[in-house]
Specification:
The chain has 3 domains: 50 residues, Structural Genomics Hypothetical 15.5 Kd Protein In mrcA-pckA Intergenic Region, Chain A, CATH 3.10.290.10; 88 residues, 2-Layer Sandwich (Alpha-Beta Plaits), CATH 3.30.70; 78 residues, Alpha-L RNA-binding motif (Alpha-Beta Plaits), CATH 3.30.70.1560. It contains 6 helices and 12 strands. Helix 1 packs across helix 2. It binds uracil (URA). Uracil (URA) binds next to helix 5.
Length: 232
């Protein structure tokens, strides 16, 4: 791909900016300064300011989302994208979250700049488990595991029952809930359906990706194999 096209698609600037950076000697190709912004290059052989380029198109990122951040590109308040390098905001195609977490939910959130990856990781047909640690307002009443596992639970206003979900009880107000889909406010609505209320929600796993090594607000690149684990 042309150097200016590649770098501008990765958010390093407009094509004009890249031409400027090249003329100033900021860009190396195969170890040599490259002043020609129209040169055809391979991503892995380019250095910008002596640093390898950001991940090419088709990347997946895992972040430990803190509470208080919104999974949206345009909203008032703190946006989750502000926790990523500024350059990522100018990537084309755009980086988006894979599904969403509510503003008051914390934990693992994935991002991708590839619509196919996004679609494949959110499709309920794939049965990729998302595991939430849920703190409840009221003690469990006793039938929740059965109701959630039934595959017949209907949420208010929906036409299709939820897929079976797995509830692991830690104590009577703390549980781990594993679901394979991602409907709007799903976990909060599931507990509302059994007469309870979610006090705190923290996603501890998305597929095979956990929070290990990620402090709040930190992120890392992951691969499709990392997400799918032994399934892939
Ligand atoms: N279910 C919810 O209710 N909220 C989230 O943020 C994620 C799942």
């Amino acid at each position: 791909m042309r150097l200016d096209k590649l770098l501008s698609s990765l958010g390093y600037g407009t094509r004009k900016d890249i031409e400027f950076f090249a003329r100033r000697g900021y860009i190396k190709y195969k170890g040599e300064i490259c002043k020609d912004a129209t040169k055809k290059v391979e991503h892995e052989d380019v250095l910008f300011d002596n640093e390898p380029l950001d991940h090419p198109h088709g990347m997946i990122i895992a972040m430990n989302k803190p509470k208080g951040y919104i999974c949206s590109h345009e909203d008032s308040g703190r946006l989750i994208y502000s926790l990523l390098p500024d350059r990522f905001a100018s990537r084309n195609p755009k980086l988006s979250t894979i599904g969403r977490l509510d503003v008051d939910t914390s934990g693992i959130i994935l991002f991708s700049d590839d619509g196919n990856i996004n679609h494949s990781l959110t499709s309920p047909k794939r049965h990729i488990p998302k595991v939430y640690e849920v703190t409840l307002k009221h003690p469990l009443r006793g039938d929740e595991q059965k109701v959630f596992a039934s595959g017949t639970l209907m949420l208010n206003g929906e036409e299709k029952p939820l897929l079976p979900a797995k509830l692991e009880i830690i104590n009577d107000t703390l549980v781990h809930l594993s679901i394979d889909e991602g409907r709007y406010h799903q976990v909060k609505r599931m507990f509302a359906a059994v007469g309870n209320r979610v006090e705190a929600l923290h996603r501890i796993k998305f597929g095979n990706i956990g929070l290990e090594g990620l402090e709040e607000g930190e992120w890392r690149y992951v691969s499709m194999d990392d997400v799918l684990g032994s399934e892939s």
